[in-house]
Amino acid sequence: MSTSSALERFDDKARERFEAAGRTTVYRGELLRHPVYTRVLHWAVALFFFLALFSGFGIYLPWLFRWFTPIFGGGQLSRIMHPYFGVAFVFFFALQVVNWLPPMLWTAADSRWMGKIHKIVSGEEKMDPPDTGFFNAGQKLQFWEIVVGSIVFVITGIILWAGASTFGRMAVAISYVLHDISAVIMLGGIFIHIYLSTIGEPGTFQAMIRGAVSEAWAWTFHPAWYKQVTGRDPEQACEEARRGH
Amino acid sequence: MADRKALQAEMISGHSTPSPGLGMQRDLEVCKLVDTTTCIGCKACEVACVEWNDMPFSLTTFDNTYQTMPETRWNFWNLIKFNEHQNPDGTIQWLMRKDQCMHCADPGCLAACPAEGAIVKYANGIVDFNQENCIGCEFCVSGCPFNIPRFNPATKRVYKCTLCSDRVGEGLEPACIKACPTGCLKFGSKDDMKFIAEERSKQLRENFGWKNAGVYDPQSVGGTHVIYVLHDATDPERYGGLPKNPQIPWSYTVWKWLFKPVLGTFALFGFVGVLLHYVTAGPRVEQPEPPKKEGSSVNV
What is the value of ipTM here, to two decimals? Predict the structure, then answer.
């Protein structure tokens, strides 16, 4: 209890400090989506994710990806840097977990969202279900996948870092497989993440750059969140906008 | 690395295309034969190894045995392992085994290695480390069933017995062979050494009463290019922990060569999937969509 509240205090303080140092401009017809602290954490996680990913490629499949290693100054330096990139990735993601824990908790609405996922993905339902909050079930699923994947990375990564001389042959042989599986799942996920945040759902990318999204974006993809921050009914707002055209 | 004629690379770690020397010339498989029944534990081979390879000396560790140190080191590739073995009839057997890289036909270290050209297996059977390509990940340590590769923290590379590839490439025998005073170490073609080892085992069984005498050439790693004659081949463990059935972990065999590329392809499906989504279902856009101009599009 005391630990969680200490973490919350730390998180609140960090939000305040970053908000004072940075700026988020929300124009008319827009809503604040991500404050400065969240955005900085996101891009720190992204940076170290890709550094760890690319420095790991050459070690994952050397006969196919050996051309990645010169980017990091050769195989030796790739091997030395990779664990540090990984530690930085997990560190910043852990801060993001503290920052995002409440809105990422799974709810009954998320289970209903997952039941309709084929209709949402196919575009049959043009708007997300009305009970979709700040994050939808797909985002939450990816978030928790990264949480579990990061725990696997840390445990197996420490074993691989110290090596067989410390933890024994079989521990390394097993860790190496689990480390691979975790990486491949995250690699598959990152394509979906990048697609949906850019060309897959136009208007999303600015949420992580400027921190603001259009109201139309909010009532289309996160209607319950729109209702919560504006107090207006999302469907009615959409209908009014339609007539306004 | 030796010249083209002397040593042909047969397997290269992390290499994407066939090895350049594969099957290009006749090459005898070489083999070192260690007859544990005639080893007197003089350690001349240890000294010869350190001498020939110009390895720096380091303090030895005394652990109440006749061994120079408990395990081989990055600067000590050849170690006589001593063991006092008590037979069921109460008699004591003093076992000495020269411990070094076994130069497996299917090297676990090479299978595990993610650095191109850091581990090479020559057509003559020698498995060699090229430290300039080594990235220091120590996966080879985990892949080796004989606990041979040794990490040097100062250079962040691994080292082990080369079977004196530099000497063999020039038509010489390894340094340890040259130093052995009893002839318990022999060097030649694999076929010849196997023949001599089998003859010696037969002699031990028929003339000396070692009913279980035999040759150690484990087929679980495709055979080795260092073979032993043992008084009791049914229990190699007693010879300083020689594994009875050495195995390469499956993560370096089936996982690495089958599942890794397959899994990587699945990750790529994420990319293909979103691309297909974009061109078939199309992006999801904010509602309401801007009104379309008349005649500008046709809904099918």
Answer: 0.87
